């Protein structure tokens, strides 16, 4: 887990025992995080002064799919956690339908609820400003799905396709996703070397921003005014020759002067302490 201080540019980190993704900050304590670790959901208390941490496993999912890992996830407005899984190797041809999307609440901390199952590679998600729409990506579908969202109960319904990559000749996998104050979606294209801006109401492709790495993995608004789009990338699976051609692969990039900004991130509210 890495922490980047935008003001002084300081980077700090801790090393956990497993594959880390995602990480969501807790409402009760800025140093308490709800973390996906392999296929477990773990609470991590990070002591910034000495760099140590304590942790507690809250739940482990998909016992029938031991080769799955947590992938993308976020908190909703009420602090419920939405975490999805995928096959470790992302081999959806030989191992299809191994992923699921789970919801974790205070009442079900140790027993996460399956919300969408099966999926292949559970990935980006976002809620609109009115908080009555939920957007979700299962990467191999090359679609962004829209659901009606009931915030009070945390329920989704009435799936429709909001954006179809194939309709715009985008030969890539949609990965992480966020939303701006205008309710446009910003989507990382894994294998597409770019971030796209999408109007989910009309299905329009509004813009495309090249990134100097082919495997673009996720996006999130940050900075003092939430108007900087931070973009993560990967170098996993690249050959030495490919890395020479895209030495920035695996870096975090920042896009500025985009003419819009993001919404404050929701925080987890499923536990108060470890």
TrEMBL record:
Its main location: cytoplasm. Gene3D superfamilies: TolB, C-terminal domain. InterPro entries: 6-blade_b-propeller_TolB-like, Regucalcin, SGL, SMP-30. Binds 1 divalent metal cation per subunit. GO terms for molecular function: calcium ion binding; enzyme regulator activity; gluconolactonase activity. SUPFAM superfamilies: Calcium-dependent phosphotriesterase. Keywords: Calcium, Cytoplasm, Hydrolase, Metal-binding, Zinc. Pfam families: SGL. It catalyses: D-glucono-1,5-lactone + H2O = D-gluconate + H(+). It comes from the Eukaryota. It is an enzyme of class 3 (hydrolase). It is found in: Cytoplasm. GO terms for cellular component: cytoplasm. Residues 4-234 form the SMP-30/Gluconolactonase/LRE-like region domain. Substrate binds at residues 71, 89. Transmembrane segments: none annotated. Signal peptide: none annotated. GO terms for biological process: L-ascorbic acid biosynthetic process. Its EC number is 3.1.1.17. Its cofactor is Mn(2+); Zn(2+); Mg(2+); Ca(2+). A divalent metal cation binds at residues 123, 175. The active site is at residue 175. Belongs to the SMP-30/CGR1 family. This is Regucalcin. It comes from Tenebrio molitor (Yellow mealworm beetle).
